[in-house]
Amino acid sequence: EIVLTQSPGTLSLSPGERATLSCRASQSVRSTYLAWYQQKPGQSPRLLIYGVSNRAAGIPDRFSGSGSGTDFSLTISRLEPEDFAVYYCQHYDTSPRLTFGGGTKVEI
Amino acid sequence: QLQLQESGPGLVKPSETLSLTCTVSGGSISISNYYWGWIRQSPGKDLEWIGTIYKSGDIRYNPSLMSRVSISVDTSKKQFSLKLSSVTAADMAVYFCVSDQYNSSWYKYWGQGTLVTVSS
Hints:
The complex is a heterodimer of chains A (108) and B (120).
Chain A: E1 4-7, E2 10-12, E3 19-25, E4 34-39, E5 46-50, E6 54-55, E7 63-68, E8 71-76, E9 86-93, E10 97-100, E11 104-107
Parallel strand pairs in A: 2-11
Antiparallel strand pairs in A: 1-3, 3-8, 4-5, 4-9, 5-6, 7-8, 9-10, 9-11
Chain B: E1 3-7, E2 11-12, E3 18-25, E4 35-41, E5 47-53, E6 59-61, E7 69-74, E8 79-84, E9 93-100, E10 109-110, E11 114-118
Parallel strand pairs in B: 2-11
Antiparallel strand pairs in B: 1-3, 3-8, 4-5, 4-9, 5-6, 7-8, 9-10, 9-11
C-alpha cells in the first residue's frame, strides 16, 4: 500500500503570498494517478488538480501541480482569501485502491 | 451538473449495519455513464476510500473494509447505496458519495456528506 505524506502540516501565510505544498509517496507512483483536493470547513473536498498537473474545470490558474516519482507539489501562486483551506493529495493504483495524504492546512 | 445527496441514519449502534443511500440528480445514473463511489472522513479529518462501482458494473472495495462492505446501485431510483456491517467506533465518520464521468482515479462530484455516529 502506498502511503502519502503531506508537509507541512500547517502553512501560515498572508494573502498575495506563494504557497507550496508537498506530497511524498512511500514508493514511486504513476503520475497519471495523482490528484489534489481543496476542502473548506463544513464542505466536501473539491477536485483541483488531476494527473499531477491538470487543472479541473473552473479552477483558477493560480493553482498548479507538478512532480514525478515520489515527490509532488501543489503551488498557489498568489493566495486569495478564499484559498485558505485544507489541501489533500490523492493517489490511485490499479489494485485498485485510492489513498489520501493527511492534508496540509493553509491558514492566515 | 451532477448532484449527489447522501441520506441515512445518523446514529448506528455498535455491531449493527450502517446503511446509506446516495440520490443522484442532474444527470443519468446509468452505470455506463459514470463511476460511483463512497469515501469517508474520520473526525481527525483523514479521508478513506471505501469502494467504487465501475462503468462495467464491476465493484471494488478497499481491502481493509472488504469483509464488511457492500455497494449497490438502483438505476430506477437514481440511487446507489452503501452497507457496512459490524460497525465499531472506528467507523464513525462523515460519509461522502462521489462520482466522476471519465475515470475512477479521482472524483469531481461529491455529496455534501453525512455524519454517522456509532454509539449505543
